[in-house]
Amino acid sequence: MVKHSGGKVGKAGKTLASKNSSKSAKSKAGKTLKSHQDKKH
């Protein structure tokens, strides 16, 4: 998958990749990425 950088999706990706993100933040980021993927890819 193409690595996104910048914007909302890029931020969500960084949140997921980061080891010290909270669980709720990760879940939110996952939803952001998933919905983006469904729409754009």
UniProtKB/TrEMBL annotation:
Location of the region described as Disordered in the Swiss-Prot/TrEMBL record: 1-41
Compositional bias segments (type: Low complexity): 14-24
Biased composition (Basic residues): 25-41
Domain of life (superkingdom): Bacteria
Name this polypeptide is given: Uncharacterized protein
Protein source organism: Oceanobacillus neutriphilus
